[in-house]
Amino acid sequence: MASFTNLALSLGQLGTKYVNQWLVVKRAVRDPLTGTVTLAADYSELGLLLLTVTAVGFALPLLRF
Question: What is the DSSP string of the chain?
Answer without folding.
Answer: -HHHHHHHHHHHHHHHHHHHHHS--B--EE-TTT--EEE--B-TTHHHHHHHHHHHHHHGGG---
